[in-house]
Amino acid sequence: MNEIKIDINHIAKLARLKMDEEQAEKFARQMTDIIGMVDSLPAIEGTATGLDPANPMTLRPDVVVVSETTREEILSNAPQVEAGCVVVPRIVE
Amino acid sequence: MLYQKSATELSAMLARGEISAVELTRSVLGRIEETDGKVGAYVTVCAEDALKQAAAVDSRRARGEELPALAGIPVAIKDNICTKGVLTTCSSKMLYNFKPPYNATVIERLNAAGAVMPGKLNMDEFAMGSSCENSAIKLTHNPHDLTRVPGGSSGGSAAAVASGETILALGSDTGGSIRQPSSCCGIVGLKPTYGSVSRYGLIAFASSLDQIGPMARTVGDAALLYNTICGRDERDATSAHHTYPDFTKCMGKGVKGLRIGVPKEYFGLGVTKEVEKAVLEAVDALRAEGAEIREISLPSTDAALAAYYIISSAEASSNLARFDGVKYGYRAREIDGLIDLYEKSRSEGFGDEVKRRIMLGTFVLSSGFFDAYYKRGKVLQQKIASEFAEAFEGCDLIATPTSPFTAFRLGENVDDPLKMYAADICTVTVNIASLPAMSIPCGTGADGMPIGLQLIGPRFSEAALFNAAAHYESLVGGFNKIPAIG
CA B239 to CA B193: how far, in whole Å? Predict the structure, then answer.
Protein backbone atom coordinates (compact mmCIF):
# COMPACT_ATOMS: atom_id res chain seq x y z
CA MET A 1 0.00 0.00 0.00
CA ASN A 2 1.16 3.54 -0.71
CA GLU A 3 2.11 5.78 2.13
CA ILE A 4 -1.00 7.44 3.48
CA LYS A 5 -0.98 11.18 3.90
CA ILE A 6 -2.93 11.99 7.03
CA ASP A 7 -4.80 15.30 6.93
CA ILE A 8 -4.20 15.99 10.59
CA ASN A 9 -6.17 19.23 10.73
CA HIS A 10 -9.25 17.60 9.22
CA ILE A 11 -9.04 14.69 11.70
CA ALA A 12 -8.56 17.12 14.60
CA LYS A 13 -11.65 19.01 13.54
CA LEU A 14 -13.70 15.80 13.41
CA ALA A 15 -12.37 14.84 16.85
CA ARG A 16 -13.08 18.30 18.29
CA LEU A 17 -9.46 18.81 19.26
CA LYS A 18 -7.25 21.83 18.77
CA MET A 19 -3.51 21.64 18.43
CA ASP A 20 -0.64 23.88 17.47
CA GLU A 21 1.44 23.19 14.38
CA GLU A 22 4.31 21.57 16.22
CA GLN A 23 2.00 19.16 17.98
CA ALA A 24 0.06 18.45 14.78
CA GLU A 25 3.29 17.56 13.02
CA LYS A 26 4.37 15.25 15.82
CA PHE A 27 0.98 13.54 15.87
CA ALA A 28 0.98 13.12 12.10
CA ARG A 29 4.40 11.47 12.25
CA GLN A 30 3.46 9.14 15.12
CA MET A 31 0.12 8.24 13.56
CA THR A 32 1.81 7.45 10.27
CA ASP A 33 4.07 5.01 12.17
CA ILE A 34 1.10 3.31 13.81
CA ILE A 35 -0.84 3.18 10.54
CA GLY A 36 2.31 1.70 9.01
CA MET A 37 1.92 -1.35 11.22
CA VAL A 38 -1.43 -1.99 9.58
CA ASP A 39 -0.21 -1.34 6.06
CA SER A 40 2.43 -4.02 6.55
CA LEU A 41 -0.25 -6.65 7.15
CA PRO A 42 -0.92 -9.25 4.48
CA ALA A 43 -4.26 -8.98 2.72
CA ILE A 44 -6.82 -11.02 4.61
CA GLU A 45 -10.04 -12.30 3.16
CA GLY A 46 -13.18 -12.55 5.19
CA THR A 47 -16.05 -10.71 6.74
CA ALA A 48 -16.50 -9.57 10.28
CA THR A 49 -19.78 -9.53 12.16
CA GLY A 50 -18.55 -8.38 15.54
CA LEU A 51 -21.33 -10.28 17.27
CA ASP A 52 -20.79 -13.30 19.46
CA PRO A 53 -23.27 -16.03 18.47
CA ALA A 54 -22.55 -17.93 21.71
CA ASN A 55 -23.55 -14.96 23.81
CA PRO A 56 -26.02 -12.70 22.05
CA MET A 57 -26.55 -9.45 23.89
CA THR A 58 -29.62 -9.29 26.06
CA LEU A 59 -31.07 -5.83 26.26
CA ARG A 60 -33.09 -4.99 29.32
CA PRO A 61 -36.82 -4.32 28.81
CA ASP A 62 -37.50 -0.77 27.70
CA VAL A 63 -39.52 0.27 30.73
CA VAL A 64 -39.26 3.37 32.84
CA VAL A 65 -37.79 2.76 36.27
CA VAL A 66 -37.49 5.30 39.04
CA SER A 67 -33.88 6.43 39.45
CA GLU A 68 -32.47 6.74 42.94
CA THR A 69 -30.19 9.51 41.72
CA THR A 70 -31.48 13.01 42.45
CA ARG A 71 -31.26 16.04 40.20
CA GLU A 72 -29.00 17.71 42.78
CA GLU A 73 -26.56 14.77 42.74
CA ILE A 74 -26.31 14.88 38.96
CA LEU A 75 -25.97 18.65 38.77
CA SER A 76 -23.32 18.68 41.48
CA ASN A 77 -20.82 17.57 38.82
CA ALA A 78 -21.76 20.25 36.29
CA PRO A 79 -19.22 23.02 35.69
CA GLN A 80 -21.88 25.76 35.72
CA VAL A 81 -25.46 25.53 37.00
CA GLU A 82 -28.27 28.06 37.15
CA ALA A 83 -31.82 27.50 38.39
CA GLY A 84 -31.37 23.71 38.33
CA CYS A 85 -30.07 23.70 34.74
CA VAL A 86 -26.65 23.25 33.14
CA VAL A 87 -25.38 26.50 31.64
CA VAL A 88 -23.93 26.41 28.11
CA PRO A 89 -22.97 29.17 25.67
CA ARG A 90 -25.77 30.59 23.55
CA ILE A 91 -26.42 28.29 20.57
CA VAL A 92 -29.40 30.04 18.94
CA GLU A 93 -29.21 33.68 17.99
CA MET B 1 2.22 -7.33 60.16
CA LEU B 2 -1.36 -7.83 59.04
CA TYR B 3 -0.92 -6.02 55.70
CA GLN B 4 1.62 -8.67 54.65
CA LYS B 5 -0.81 -11.55 54.92
CA SER B 6 -3.02 -12.96 52.20
CA ALA B 7 -6.74 -12.25 52.01
CA THR B 8 -7.41 -15.96 52.45
CA GLU B 9 -5.48 -16.06 55.75
CA LEU B 10 -6.96 -12.76 56.94
CA SER B 11 -10.49 -13.88 56.11
CA ALA B 12 -10.05 -16.96 58.35
CA MET B 13 -8.52 -14.86 61.14
CA LEU B 14 -11.43 -12.42 60.96
CA ALA B 15 -13.96 -15.25 61.02
CA ARG B 16 -12.28 -16.77 64.07
CA GLY B 17 -12.31 -13.41 65.83
CA GLU B 18 -8.50 -13.31 66.14
CA ILE B 19 -8.35 -9.86 64.55
CA SER B 20 -10.90 -7.16 63.83
CA ALA B 21 -11.56 -5.52 60.48
CA VAL B 22 -10.65 -2.18 62.05
CA GLU B 23 -7.22 -3.51 63.11
CA LEU B 24 -6.61 -4.86 59.62
CA THR B 25 -7.73 -1.63 57.96
CA ARG B 26 -5.48 0.39 60.32
CA SER B 27 -2.56 -1.84 59.34
CA VAL B 28 -3.15 -1.19 55.63
CA LEU B 29 -3.72 2.55 56.14
CA GLY B 30 -0.53 2.69 58.22
CA ARG B 31 1.35 0.98 55.42
CA ILE B 32 -0.04 3.49 52.91
CA GLU B 33 1.10 6.36 55.11
CA GLU B 34 4.54 4.85 55.53
CA THR B 35 5.10 3.84 51.90
CA ASP B 36 2.91 5.67 49.42
CA GLY B 37 5.07 8.80 49.47
CA LYS B 38 7.66 6.67 47.66
CA VAL B 39 5.41 4.38 45.59
CA GLY B 40 2.63 6.79 44.63
CA ALA B 41 -0.02 4.16 44.01
CA TYR B 42 -3.02 6.07 45.38
CA VAL B 43 -4.84 9.00 43.81
CA THR B 44 -7.30 9.20 46.72
CA VAL B 45 -7.02 7.58 50.16
CA CYS B 46 -10.36 7.08 51.91
CA ALA B 47 -9.10 6.49 55.46
CA GLU B 48 -12.18 7.66 57.32
CA ASP B 49 -14.71 5.84 55.15
CA ALA B 50 -12.60 2.68 55.17
CA LEU B 51 -12.50 2.65 58.98
CA LYS B 52 -16.27 3.18 59.06
CA GLN B 53 -16.82 0.26 56.68
CA ALA B 54 -14.51 -1.88 58.81
CA ALA B 55 -16.29 -0.93 62.04
CA ALA B 56 -19.63 -1.82 60.45
CA VAL B 57 -18.29 -5.28 59.55
CA ASP B 58 -16.97 -5.75 63.08
CA SER B 59 -20.30 -4.90 64.66
CA ARG B 60 -22.17 -7.22 62.31
CA ARG B 61 -19.77 -9.98 63.25
CA ALA B 62 -20.17 -9.17 66.94
CA ARG B 63 -23.92 -9.69 66.51
CA GLY B 64 -23.15 -13.20 65.31
CA GLU B 65 -23.98 -12.62 61.63
CA GLU B 66 -22.55 -15.05 59.10
CA LEU B 67 -20.46 -12.87 56.75
CA PRO B 68 -19.04 -13.38 53.24
CA ALA B 69 -15.34 -14.30 52.91
CA LEU B 70 -14.39 -10.77 51.77
CA ALA B 71 -16.00 -9.05 54.77
CA GLY B 72 -13.46 -6.72 56.35
CA ILE B 73 -10.81 -7.26 53.65
CA PRO B 74 -9.31 -4.10 52.08
CA VAL B 75 -9.85 -3.96 48.30
CA ALA B 76 -8.49 -0.83 46.58
CA ILE B 77 -10.02 0.30 43.28
CA LYS B 78 -8.58 1.53 40.01
CA ASP B 79 -9.64 5.12 39.45
CA ASN B 80 -11.71 4.38 36.33
CA ILE B 81 -14.34 2.46 38.31
CA CYS B 82 -17.18 4.64 39.57
CA THR B 83 -17.50 4.98 43.32
CA LYS B 84 -20.48 6.99 44.54
CA GLY B 85 -19.44 10.29 46.11
CA VAL B 86 -15.72 9.38 45.87
CA LEU B 87 -13.51 11.13 43.32
CA THR B 88 -13.11 9.01 40.15
CA THR B 89 -10.60 10.78 37.93
CA CYS B 90 -9.38 8.21 35.38
CA SER B 91 -6.09 9.98 36.24
CA SER B 92 -7.17 12.70 33.83
CA LYS B 93 -7.49 16.46 34.10
CA MET B 94 -10.78 15.92 32.23
CA LEU B 95 -12.31 14.26 35.32
CA TYR B 96 -10.22 15.98 38.01
CA ASN B 97 -13.33 16.85 40.05
CA PHE B 98 -15.74 14.06 39.05
CA LYS B 99 -17.64 12.41 41.91
CA PRO B 100 -19.93 9.77 40.37
CA PRO B 101 -23.54 9.86 41.54
CA TYR B 102 -23.66 6.05 41.41
CA ASN B 103 -21.59 2.93 42.11
CA ALA B 104 -20.27 0.53 39.47
CA THR B 105 -21.80 -2.94 39.74
CA VAL B 106 -18.49 -4.36 41.01
CA ILE B 107 -18.52 -1.77 43.83
CA GLU B 108 -22.08 -2.72 44.76
CA ARG B 109 -20.98 -6.34 44.90
CA LEU B 110 -17.94 -5.54 47.04
CA ASN B 111 -20.08 -3.44 49.38
CA ALA B 112 -22.61 -6.24 49.71
CA ALA B 113 -19.74 -8.60 50.58
CA GLY B 114 -18.52 -6.21 53.29
CA ALA B 115 -15.19 -5.40 51.60
CA VAL B 116 -13.38 -2.26 52.79
CA MET B 117 -12.16 0.33 50.27
CA PRO B 118 -8.91 2.03 51.33
CA GLY B 119 -8.89 4.24 48.25
CA LYS B 120 -8.59 4.80 44.50
CA LEU B 121 -5.53 3.90 42.48
CA ASN B 122 -3.43 5.67 39.89
CA MET B 123 -3.46 4.59 36.23
CA ASP B 124 -2.52 5.74 32.77
CA GLU B 125 -5.01 8.39 31.73
CA PHE B 126 -8.25 6.71 30.59
CA ALA B 127 -6.37 3.37 30.82
CA MET B 128 -4.24 4.20 27.78
CA GLY B 129 -0.66 3.23 28.43
CA SER B 130 1.73 0.61 29.73
CA SER B 131 3.70 2.48 32.40
CA CYS B 132 1.36 4.75 34.38
CA GLU B 133 3.42 7.66 33.03
CA ASN B 134 0.35 8.93 31.17
CA SER B 135 -1.36 9.77 34.46
CA ALA B 136 -2.14 13.49 34.68
CA ILE B 137 -2.06 13.21 38.47
CA LYS B 138 1.19 11.61 39.55
CA LEU B 139 3.90 9.07 38.79
CA THR B 140 3.70 5.60 40.29
CA HIS B 141 6.96 3.81 41.05
CA ASN B 142 7.63 0.07 40.93
CA PRO B 143 7.91 -1.22 44.53
CA HIS B 144 10.77 -3.52 43.45
CA ASP B 145 12.83 -0.59 42.15
CA LEU B 146 11.54 2.94 42.56
CA THR B 147 13.38 4.15 39.44
CA ARG B 148 11.25 1.84 37.28
CA VAL B 149 7.67 1.92 36.02
CA PRO B 150 5.01 -0.29 37.63
CA GLY B 151 3.59 -1.11 34.19
CA GLY B 152 0.14 -0.03 33.12
CA SER B 153 -2.44 0.92 32.75
CA SER B 154 -3.43 -0.59 36.16
CA GLY B 155 -0.01 0.40 37.53
CA GLY B 156 -1.37 1.90 40.75
CA SER B 157 -3.32 -1.31 41.43
CA ALA B 158 -0.25 -3.51 40.85
CA ALA B 159 2.07 -1.28 42.90
CA ALA B 160 -0.40 -1.06 45.82
CA VAL B 161 -0.85 -4.83 45.95
CA ALA B 162 2.88 -5.53 45.58
CA SER B 163 3.89 -3.03 48.28
CA GLY B 164 1.31 -4.17 50.84
CA GLU B 165 -0.62 -0.91 50.53
CA THR B 166 -3.74 -3.00 50.02
CA ILE B 167 -4.60 -6.67 50.33
CA LEU B 168 -6.47 -6.86 47.03
CA ALA B 169 -7.19 -4.53 44.13
CA LEU B 170 -9.39 -4.25 41.08
CA GLY B 171 -7.85 -3.32 37.76
CA SER B 172 -9.21 -3.20 34.23
CA ASP B 173 -7.71 -4.78 31.13
CA THR B 174 -8.31 -3.68 27.54
CA GLY B 175 -5.06 -4.91 25.96
CA GLY B 176 -3.02 -6.13 28.93
CA SER B 177 -3.66 -3.46 31.54
CA ILE B 178 -4.10 -5.97 34.40
CA ARG B 179 -1.58 -8.59 33.31
CA GLN B 180 1.36 -6.43 32.20
CA PRO B 181 1.59 -4.39 35.45
CA SER B 182 1.02 -7.60 37.44
CA SER B 183 4.02 -9.04 35.60
CA CYS B 184 6.10 -5.89 36.21
CA CYS B 185 5.29 -5.85 39.95
CA GLY B 186 5.48 -9.62 40.59
CA ILE B 187 1.84 -10.24 41.49
CA VAL B 188 -1.13 -12.29 40.24
CA GLY B 189 -3.58 -10.64 37.84
CA LEU B 190 -6.55 -12.11 36.01
CA LYS B 191 -8.16 -10.71 32.88
CA PRO B 192 -11.46 -12.59 32.95
CA THR B 193 -13.48 -13.90 30.00
CA TYR B 194 -15.21 -11.01 28.23
CA GLY B 195 -18.73 -10.71 29.62
CA SER B 196 -18.09 -12.40 32.95
CA VAL B 197 -17.65 -9.20 35.01
CA SER B 198 -20.11 -6.34 34.57
CA ARG B 199 -18.69 -3.20 32.95
CA TYR B 200 -21.50 -1.04 34.36
CA GLY B 201 -19.73 1.91 35.99
CA LEU B 202 -16.37 1.21 34.39
CA ILE B 203 -15.48 4.37 32.47
CA ALA B 204 -15.28 3.01 28.93
CA PHE B 205 -12.10 2.90 26.83
CA ALA B 206 -12.87 0.19 24.23
CA SER B 207 -16.17 -1.40 25.19
CA SER B 208 -15.73 -4.63 23.21
CA LEU B 209 -12.36 -5.32 24.89
CA ASP B 210 -12.59 -3.80 28.42
CA GLN B 211 -12.89 -6.14 31.36
CA ILE B 212 -12.50 -5.61 35.13
CA GLY B 213 -10.46 -8.21 36.99
CA PRO B 214 -8.78 -9.10 40.31
CA MET B 215 -5.16 -8.38 41.30
CA ALA B 216 -3.62 -10.08 44.33
CA ARG B 217 -0.43 -11.46 45.86
CA THR B 218 -1.62 -15.08 45.77
CA VAL B 219 -3.66 -17.12 43.30
CA GLY B 220 -6.18 -18.07 45.99
CA ASP B 221 -6.74 -14.39 46.78
CA ALA B 222 -7.43 -13.60 43.14
CA ALA B 223 -9.99 -16.46 43.12
CA LEU B 224 -11.64 -15.05 46.25
CA LEU B 225 -12.05 -11.63 44.68
CA TYR B 226 -13.14 -13.04 41.32
CA ASN B 227 -15.87 -15.05 43.09
CA THR B 228 -17.39 -11.80 44.31
CA ILE B 229 -17.26 -9.76 41.10
CA CYS B 230 -18.24 -12.24 38.36
CA GLY B 231 -21.82 -12.86 37.27
CA ARG B 232 -24.66 -11.60 35.16
CA ASP B 233 -25.73 -7.96 35.38
CA GLU B 234 -28.64 -6.73 33.31
CA ARG B 235 -27.19 -3.20 33.26
CA ASP B 236 -24.37 -4.44 30.99
CA ALA B 237 -25.84 -5.72 27.71
CA THR B 238 -22.69 -7.78 27.04
CA SER B 239 -22.82 -9.49 30.43
CA ALA B 240 -22.87 -13.27 29.89
CA HIS B 241 -25.51 -15.73 31.06
CA HIS B 242 -23.28 -18.28 32.70
CA THR B 243 -23.09 -20.26 35.93
CA TYR B 244 -19.80 -19.88 37.80
CA PRO B 245 -18.30 -22.35 40.28
CA ASP B 246 -16.74 -21.35 43.63
CA PHE B 247 -13.27 -20.60 42.26
CA THR B 248 -11.60 -20.98 45.66
CA LYS B 249 -12.57 -24.66 45.47
CA CYS B 250 -11.19 -25.18 41.95
CA MET B 251 -7.55 -25.42 43.01
CA GLY B 252 -5.45 -28.34 44.25
CA LYS B 253 -6.44 -30.74 41.49
CA GLY B 254 -2.90 -31.13 40.13
CA VAL B 255 -1.77 -30.76 36.52
CA LYS B 256 -1.36 -34.40 35.53
CA GLY B 257 -2.49 -34.79 31.91
CA LEU B 258 -3.09 -31.05 31.52
CA ARG B 259 -2.18 -30.20 27.91
CA ILE B 260 -0.27 -26.92 27.77
CA GLY B 261 0.37 -25.36 24.37
CA VAL B 262 3.46 -23.22 23.83
CA PRO B 263 3.03 -21.00 20.75
CA LYS B 264 6.37 -20.37 19.07
CA GLU B 265 5.22 -16.98 17.75
CA TYR B 266 5.19 -15.55 21.29
CA PHE B 267 8.92 -16.01 21.72
CA GLY B 268 10.01 -13.71 18.91
CA LEU B 269 8.33 -10.32 19.17
CA GLY B 270 11.14 -8.63 21.07
CA VAL B 271 10.89 -11.09 23.97
CA THR B 272 14.21 -10.94 25.83
CA LYS B 273 16.27 -14.08 26.35
CA GLU B 274 15.86 -13.96 30.12
CA VAL B 275 12.07 -13.69 29.86
CA GLU B 276 11.98 -16.59 27.39
CA LYS B 277 14.15 -18.70 29.68
CA ALA B 278 12.09 -17.98 32.82
CA VAL B 279 8.81 -18.75 31.04
CA LEU B 280 10.10 -22.00 29.51
CA GLU B 281 11.49 -23.06 32.90
CA ALA B 282 8.07 -22.52 34.46
CA VAL B 283 6.51 -24.62 31.69
CA ASP B 284 9.14 -27.31 32.35
CA ALA B 285 8.29 -27.29 36.04
CA LEU B 286 4.67 -28.04 35.12
CA ARG B 287 5.83 -30.77 32.71
CA ALA B 288 7.71 -32.41 35.59
CA GLU B 289 4.38 -32.48 37.47
CA GLY B 290 2.69 -34.45 34.70
CA ALA B 291 1.51 -31.74 32.30
CA GLU B 292 1.88 -32.50 28.58
CA ILE B 293 3.66 -29.73 26.70
CA ARG B 294 2.85 -29.19 23.03
CA GLU B 295 4.34 -26.77 20.59
CA ILE B 296 1.52 -24.95 18.83
CA SER B 297 1.21 -22.19 16.27
CA LEU B 298 -0.86 -18.99 16.32
CA PRO B 299 0.24 -17.52 12.96
CA SER B 300 -1.54 -14.14 13.12
CA THR B 301 0.07 -13.10 16.39
CA ASP B 302 2.43 -10.51 14.94
CA ALA B 303 -0.48 -8.76 13.23
CA ALA B 304 -2.52 -8.58 16.43
CA LEU B 305 -0.99 -5.40 17.77
CA ALA B 306 -2.02 -3.49 14.66
CA ALA B 307 -5.56 -4.89 14.85
CA TYR B 308 -5.68 -4.00 18.52
CA TYR B 309 -4.70 -0.36 18.01
CA ILE B 310 -7.19 0.07 15.19
CA ILE B 311 -10.14 -1.46 17.05
CA SER B 312 -9.40 -0.01 20.49
CA SER B 313 -8.68 3.48 19.19
CA ALA B 314 -11.82 3.47 17.05
CA GLU B 315 -13.93 2.57 20.06
CA ALA B 316 -12.08 5.07 22.24
CA SER B 317 -12.72 7.92 19.82
CA SER B 318 -16.46 7.20 20.06
CA ASN B 319 -16.51 6.58 23.83
CA LEU B 320 -14.50 9.68 24.65
CA ALA B 321 -16.68 11.92 22.50
CA ARG B 322 -18.90 12.31 25.58
CA PHE B 323 -16.28 14.41 27.37
CA ASP B 324 -17.27 17.83 26.08
CA GLY B 325 -17.11 20.11 29.12
CA VAL B 326 -20.88 20.45 29.36
CA LYS B 327 -22.46 18.29 32.06
CA TYR B 328 -19.48 17.17 34.16
CA GLY B 329 -15.72 17.20 34.25
CA TYR B 330 -13.32 19.87 33.03
CA ARG B 331 -14.62 22.98 31.26
CA ALA B 332 -12.28 25.49 29.65
CA ARG B 333 -12.59 29.17 30.54
CA GLU B 334 -12.86 32.12 28.17
CA ILE B 335 -14.68 30.40 25.39
CA ASP B 336 -16.28 31.71 22.27
CA GLY B 337 -19.41 29.68 21.53
CA LEU B 338 -20.33 26.03 21.90
CA ILE B 339 -17.86 24.49 19.43
CA ASP B 340 -15.06 26.44 21.04
CA LEU B 341 -16.22 25.14 24.45
CA TYR B 342 -15.96 21.55 23.15
CA GLU B 343 -12.61 22.01 21.44
CA LYS B 344 -10.91 23.94 24.23
CA SER B 345 -12.24 21.74 27.03
CA ARG B 346 -11.13 18.57 25.23
CA SER B 347 -7.76 19.96 24.15
CA GLU B 348 -6.93 21.20 27.65
CA GLY B 349 -8.53 18.26 29.49
CA PHE B 350 -6.97 15.31 27.62
CA GLY B 351 -3.29 14.37 27.68
CA ASP B 352 -1.20 13.56 24.60
CA GLU B 353 -1.67 9.78 24.51
CA VAL B 354 -5.44 10.10 24.82
CA LYS B 355 -5.50 12.68 22.03
CA ARG B 356 -3.28 10.49 19.86
CA ARG B 357 -5.68 7.55 20.21
CA ILE B 358 -8.78 9.68 19.67
CA MET B 359 -7.14 11.03 16.50
CA LEU B 360 -6.12 7.56 15.33
CA GLY B 361 -9.62 6.23 16.01
CA THR B 362 -11.22 9.17 14.23
CA PHE B 363 -8.92 8.60 11.26
CA VAL B 364 -9.61 4.87 10.87
CA LEU B 365 -13.36 5.48 11.09
CA SER B 366 -13.31 8.44 8.71
CA SER B 367 -14.74 8.35 5.23
CA GLY B 368 -12.39 6.78 2.69
CA PHE B 369 -10.26 4.89 5.22
CA PHE B 370 -12.84 2.73 7.01
CA ASP B 371 -12.41 -0.33 4.77
CA ALA B 372 -8.63 -0.14 4.69
CA TYR B 373 -8.23 0.01 8.45
CA TYR B 374 -11.20 -0.61 10.70
CA LYS B 375 -12.80 -3.32 8.59
CA ARG B 376 -9.43 -4.99 8.11
CA GLY B 377 -8.87 -4.88 11.88
CA LYS B 378 -12.22 -6.57 12.53
CA VAL B 379 -11.52 -9.31 9.97
CA LEU B 380 -8.16 -9.89 11.58
CA GLN B 381 -9.84 -10.06 14.98
CA GLN B 382 -12.02 -12.92 13.78
CA LYS B 383 -8.99 -14.69 12.33
CA ILE B 384 -7.08 -14.43 15.62
CA ALA B 385 -10.09 -15.74 17.55
CA SER B 386 -10.48 -18.72 15.24
CA GLU B 387 -6.77 -19.55 15.47
CA PHE B 388 -7.11 -19.70 19.24
CA ALA B 389 -10.23 -21.87 18.94
CA GLU B 390 -8.33 -24.27 16.70
CA ALA B 391 -5.36 -24.33 19.09
CA PHE B 392 -7.63 -25.19 22.01
CA GLU B 393 -8.71 -28.37 20.21
CA GLY B 394 -5.22 -29.71 20.92
CA CYS B 395 -4.48 -28.18 24.31
CA ASP B 396 -6.23 -27.05 27.50
CA LEU B 397 -4.18 -23.95 28.28
CA ILE B 398 -1.58 -21.86 26.49
CA ALA B 399 1.58 -20.56 28.18
CA THR B 400 3.42 -17.42 26.98
CA PRO B 401 5.37 -14.52 28.46
CA THR B 402 3.13 -11.74 29.82
CA SER B 403 5.47 -8.87 28.96
CA PRO B 404 8.37 -9.26 26.53
CA PHE B 405 10.70 -7.48 28.95
CA THR B 406 10.91 -6.56 32.64
CA ALA B 407 9.81 -3.14 33.94
CA PHE B 408 11.72 -0.37 32.17
CA ARG B 409 12.98 2.83 33.74
CA LEU B 410 10.71 5.83 34.24
CA GLY B 411 11.05 8.14 31.26
CA GLU B 412 12.74 5.55 29.04
CA ASN B 413 9.93 5.15 26.48
CA VAL B 414 7.71 8.18 27.02
CA ASP B 415 8.18 9.76 23.63
CA ASP B 416 8.10 6.63 21.51
CA PRO B 417 4.54 5.27 21.24
CA LEU B 418 5.54 2.24 19.18
CA LYS B 419 8.16 1.15 21.72
CA MET B 420 5.60 1.61 24.49
CA TYR B 421 2.96 -0.34 22.56
CA ALA B 422 5.41 -3.25 22.21
CA ALA B 423 4.94 -3.93 25.94
CA ASP B 424 1.45 -5.22 25.09
CA ILE B 425 2.46 -7.49 22.26
CA CYS B 426 1.86 -10.76 24.17
CA THR B 427 -1.36 -9.67 25.87
CA VAL B 428 -3.56 -7.91 23.26
CA THR B 429 -4.51 -11.13 21.44
CA VAL B 430 -6.38 -12.32 24.53
CA ASN B 431 -8.67 -9.27 24.57
CA ILE B 432 -9.18 -9.46 20.83
CA ALA B 433 -10.34 -13.08 21.21
CA SER B 434 -12.44 -12.40 24.38
CA LEU B 435 -10.44 -15.03 26.32
CA PRO B 436 -9.43 -15.21 29.99
CA ALA B 437 -5.73 -15.06 30.90
CA MET B 438 -3.72 -14.79 34.06
CA SER B 439 -0.26 -13.46 34.78
CA ILE B 440 1.72 -15.04 37.61
CA PRO B 441 5.32 -14.39 38.71
CA CYS B 442 7.95 -16.80 37.32
CA GLY B 443 11.32 -15.54 38.45
CA THR B 444 13.33 -12.37 38.00
CA GLY B 445 15.60 -10.86 35.38
CA ALA B 446 19.24 -9.83 35.73
CA ASP B 447 18.00 -6.43 36.93
CA GLY B 448 16.16 -8.15 39.80
CA MET B 449 12.78 -7.24 38.33
CA PRO B 450 9.89 -9.75 38.23
CA ILE B 451 9.04 -11.75 35.10
CA GLY B 452 5.47 -12.90 34.38
CA LEU B 453 4.10 -16.14 32.97
CA GLN B 454 0.83 -15.73 31.08
CA LEU B 455 -1.63 -18.62 31.07
CA ILE B 456 -4.43 -18.32 28.51
CA GLY B 457 -7.54 -20.51 28.43
CA PRO B 458 -10.70 -20.94 26.36
CA ARG B 459 -13.69 -18.78 27.29
CA PHE B 460 -14.94 -19.45 30.84
CA SER B 461 -11.94 -21.63 31.73
CA GLU B 462 -10.97 -19.55 34.78
CA ALA B 463 -11.24 -22.61 37.05
CA ALA B 464 -8.51 -24.36 35.04
CA LEU B 465 -6.37 -21.20 35.07
CA PHE B 466 -6.66 -20.87 38.86
CA ASN B 467 -5.82 -24.55 39.32
CA ALA B 468 -2.71 -24.51 37.11
CA ALA B 469 -1.51 -21.18 38.52
CA ALA B 470 -2.01 -22.32 42.12
CA HIS B 471 -0.12 -25.52 41.37
CA TYR B 472 2.85 -23.58 40.05
CA GLU B 473 2.61 -21.21 43.03
CA SER B 474 2.90 -24.11 45.46
CA LEU B 475 5.81 -25.57 43.44
CA VAL B 476 7.83 -22.39 43.95
CA GLY B 477 6.90 -22.09 47.61
CA GLY B 478 4.37 -19.26 47.27
CA PHE B 479 4.32 -15.80 45.69
CA ASN B 480 3.32 -13.61 48.64
CA LYS B 481 6.53 -11.65 49.20
CA ILE B 482 6.52 -7.90 49.70
CA PRO B 483 9.83 -6.28 48.70
CA ALA B 484 11.68 -3.79 50.88
CA ILE B 485 10.72 -0.36 49.53
CA GLY B 486 13.33 2.24 48.61
Answer: 10
